[in-house]
Amino acid sequence: MSEAVIVSAEIAAGHDGQADLIVRVRYQNGVVAPVTLDPDTALKLMSACGVSDINDLAGHSWRKVLEDN
Amino acid sequence: MFDILIKNGVVVDGTGAAPRRADVAISGGKIAAVGLIDGTARRTIDASGRVVAPGFIDPHTHFDVQLLWDGAARPALEHGITTVVPGNCSLSLAPLKAADRKRVVGMFQQIEEMPPEAFTQAFEWTWEDFAGYRAALAKNLSVNVAPLVGHSVIRLWVMGAASQERAANPDEIAAMQSLLRQCLKDGAVGLSTSFVDVDENARPVPSRFAQFSELDALCAVLGEFGRMLQVVPEFYDADLTIARVDQLSELSLRHDIPTTFSPLFDSVQAPNNVSRVMTRVAEQFAQGARVWPQVQTRPIDISFSFLRPSLYFARLPRWMRILRQPMKQRMTALRDTETTGKMAADAETFRMAGAMAGLVIRGGDKAPAAYAGRTLGDVAKERGQSVPRALIDISLEGDLDVAFLSANQGHNVTDRVGPLLAHPLVHVGASDGGAHLMSFATYGDTGFLFSEFVRAGKHLTLEGAVKKITSETAAIWGLKDRGTLAPGFAADVVVFDAETIGRGDERPVFDMPGDGMRYTRDATGIDTVLVNGQVAYANGAYTDARAGVAGV
User: Fold this and answer.
1) Is B203 an 8 Å CB contact of chain A?
2) Is the pTM of this model over 0.90?
3) The total number of structural domains that make up chain A
4) Residues in chain A whose beta carbon is closer than 8 A to a beta carbon of chain B?
5) B-chain residues within 8 Å CB-CB of A53?
6) Domain residue limits at A57
7) What interface predicted TM-score (ipTM) does this complex get?
8) What is the CATH number of the domain that holds A23?
């Protein structure tokens, strides 16, 4: 079964003046949609994917966002 | 004889009517006449070349605490704001039992970033119920206050510590209904709730433990008074926000109440989010629901220091690795010249040095005062360093407690935000005045509305912009006799220069209790502000007038 995959990630300004992460996720039905992550969640996602550059998030499973580390 | 006669101005009366040359007469705190007036007055204000408009209304603030020692909600008043709505996002200072004060103070400190001295030195807690808080406020007001009551404190009053643990039972919900009913009788203009906020320990605030049935029951009470429900939805997710729009619409229709939610802001990284939400808002309005999205005028900046890892560096792997280390290891790495040399080289390689040059050193922390407000590029040149090296060294010299700002990173494309603000279903607000004190200035949004979206972008006419933040706001909130320059209305008036009204640069000040710091902005182009017929601000200075009303 295919799974949702991160296709890109960008920094965006969050309401509280922090830098948020907007990741674009391609779902199983082909739809690509943005998801906004707060810094803590974004940093956890980066760790779960083993990357320290947001450009390297592309291609990783979106399911990684659920991993607690 | 009138009390005050404002002569020779261009009246923009708040209704959206075209500007017209007229005088404004005031007696007994009310507008007595608008037109070409020959009568005499005890005081005459010459408004030649100036606009005379209703005082502006700020529908989303957190001035709950500040108003107890600063009845002008500085600097809101000097920006032309004559009425503020505190108590947003589920938090208010009443009703609140003495035993629960510490718990609520923690929540306020989390949201408002106010120093602890603000709660221990600046005022005396004399109340528990809403009427008592309103009475405490009324002693010293220069602005009018239309206070919301917070869902979280209502829950806390009824459920105690369990308010942050579980759903309410039927008896508790009934008790909350009774308490809310009393608050509304005592002058609350509505109820605020939040699906997002956390306390100082990152625990959800009490309102987030409520089931829909509880919110529905409370809205039934709001319906008895026709009062507002204010909500913070999961604004970071368009789908969840749309779901909340539907939920609010259901509550609005069932109980015949107005509802409003915020924030809603534009992002070019997710360019369809706002339009999707607005489409659903329009559909719900077409059904008869009142679900007003609040949209701020000011752009959103990104700020950071090396004290906490920021995603600002998310394209610089070495920087991210180092800044995410525990403090001791982080400091060791930043003091190692070989490591920082590689960091500086990375910034050049990954083309971040240029962006870093535009960072503004914010001040108000351990940054040298001489650097505050200047760009990092400018300071780096003065220091004879590369920009990345200066960023690292200035941070180190300030024990990492040096904040930098990357300005205008969100909600910043005038030709996208302007039409949104002009949308007939958008409620201009969401300033958050009095909150986020140490993160960014939440003042001057009204001035920015005129400078950026009337004068520069021409997305709104002068009279359209005035209407948005006066009569329209009053109508949305049910604030009777406010927001319009017409006989019988309260004499809340602002006299300003349409060519220069705006906001000054953000700057740090230490005017909070305990010499606490906050960022602020001065007003430009505002000549005179009257509240209930008394001059509260004129010629760049606050007066001794205390004509503000608590509970308009």
Assistant:
1) no
2) yes
3) 1
4) 9-22, 34-36, 38-39, 42-43, 46, 51-55
5) 314-317, 320
6) 5-66
7) 0.90
8) 2.40.50
